[in-house]
Amino acid sequence: METKYIIGAVIAVLAIIGIGAFALGGGTTEHAANELVTCVAAHGEEPEFGFDPMHGWGYHDSGTDPLIQSTILKRDKDNNFVNDLATDYEISSDLKTYTVTIRDDVKFTDGSKLTAKDVAFSYNKAKELGEGADLSSMEEAKADGDKVVFTLNKADSTFVNKLTDVGIVPEANYDEESYGQNPIGSGPYKLAQWDKGQQFILEKNPDYYGKEPYFEKITNLFLDSDAAFAAVKNGDVDIAEVPVAYANETVDGYHMEYFDSIDVRGVSIPTQMDEGKVAADNYTVGNNVTGDPAVREALNIGINRQEIVDGALNGFGNVSYNGVAGQLPWATDAGFEDGQVDEAKAILADAGWNDTDGDGIVEKDGVKASFTVYYKATATERQAIAVSLAEQAQKLGIEIIPEGASWDDIDPNIHSQGVVWGWGSADPYSLEHQYDSRVAGVGYDNAEMLNDSAVDSLIDAAMGQELDSSYGTWSQVAQQANSQYPYIWIGTMDYTYFVSDDLDISNSTHLIYPHGGDIWGNIYDWTRLNATEEA
């Protein structure tokens, strides 16, 4: 049975469960034309600490608008920086000081004025907690009149990206324990209600300084994607994100919107041999199969990525050989062709991997070419990728064992087995997290434990260049790292949404989609078609 049909069967079962769960909870009531009911993943997973940017709310790889809070900068549909709270910013020639002028006409929803002190406080607190934007290069943020001066501990041309990443909170009224439940912000919406485990409701902020959104109220339901599809079939939501397995379904009163993304799926494969070393938290480092470069190369050139995209992602995605989406200015050529099964077998044989016992799995020095690839059990597209990869690897004589688990169970294996990951950011600094040996084994950074001084040097060089000039160097980072095949990159995945036929979400003005996406990134442009607003 082909992978896409296996996954389709799994999702069908989950959908039945989801429909029952949603029915037990009851559907939504009729709502006015200027109100929305949604279920979207970027804002759809219930935040553990509530709606607090200091704990990561609104941050998802440089692209998710926190809605309740403002940010210093935003991005436009072409991924250019535009002012939000900022009226201007300057970057020193040594790339170690960023000075931002803050507009003086902004109020928080409690009536207090937003000042540069609030901005500085928010960044210092976000760095202290370390749960959202990567502010590791920031030494401190300090208010100076209507300006905020960011002092860095090293040259960092990518830091301008971080000016989009932190929602601003009021210093005077911020409480780390309670803010998430009762957030005070200055964004286009304010939190009106949070029914934990069920939904949150946003209402338009009448004092918002920016472009006024059409919709007065947004209710976002906490449903898994299969229950969200059930809600679409019941007509209970205006818009819902669904897995790509549902992308070819039709529902009366809805149309499907597809969004190209920079969200890349790939499988990390340990680059080190198992020599008894451990990383943080005592996690085992190395694998005596994937630690052989021949195995990593054979897998990369032997598999057929397009077949996996067509099957596991139902065709809703684009092949990627190096983990950098083609829309990004540091995209790079593949450097090799895939689907070369015979050549992959020859590489294995030349390196001493042969099937001497006829079981279909090659071995070397008594070690079978077998390892596990973990995936988050609730992520159906990651499961499909792992299963498809295993099927193709078998043709090469390599046994991959797909295993779904929670992150708590996956974490101890991230340096010793394969893992299906999602990456994709509008900030090239994400490559540092993926490949820099100096962060290897810290959290999820460089889980494959790549150790290449040339990669590290290229990262340092890129950080010390003007941002636009650095993209060529970041491209070299990706090329150098992937020449050692630390990942089996598969491809970018599209985001698919059922949208009510009477809703215009202004597809032409949507922002670039980072890892996690953000359907509400252009909420200011959304309208209800052919409707008279109701009170």
Q: In brief, what are we looking at here?
A:
The chain contains 13 helices and 23 strands.
Provide tags for this entry.
535 residues; alpha+beta; D-Maltodextrin-Binding Protein, domain 2; Dipeptide-binding Protein, domain 3; 3 domains; six-stranded mixed sheet; 21% strand
Notes on the structure:
This protein has 535 residues and is of the alpha+beta class. Helix content is 26%, strand content 21%. Strand 2 and strand 3 form a beta hairpin. Helix 1 (3-25) packs across helix 5. The longest helix has 23 residues, at 3-25. The termini are far apart.
Total strands: the figure is 23
The amount of beta strand, in percent, is: 15-25%
Q: What is the radius of gyration?
A: 24 Å
CATH topology of the largest domain: Dipeptide-binding Protein, domain 3
Strand ordering within the main sheet: 8-9-10-1-11-21-12
Termini separation: 54 Å
Shape: globular
User: In terms of per-residue confidence, which ranges show pLDDT below 50 for 5 or more consecutive residues?
Assistant: 1-29
If helices are DSSP runs of H or I spanning 4 or more residues, what is the number of helices?
13
In CATH terms, the superfamily of the largest domain is Dipeptide-binding Protein, Domain 3
- By secondary-structure content and strand pairing, the structural class works out as alpha+beta
- Mean pLDDT equals 91
CATH architecture of the largest domain: Roll
- Domain module count: 3
In this structure, how is the largest beta sheet organized?
A: 7 strands, mixed
Which percent bin holds the helix content? 25-40%
Output the CATH class name of the largest domain: Alpha Beta
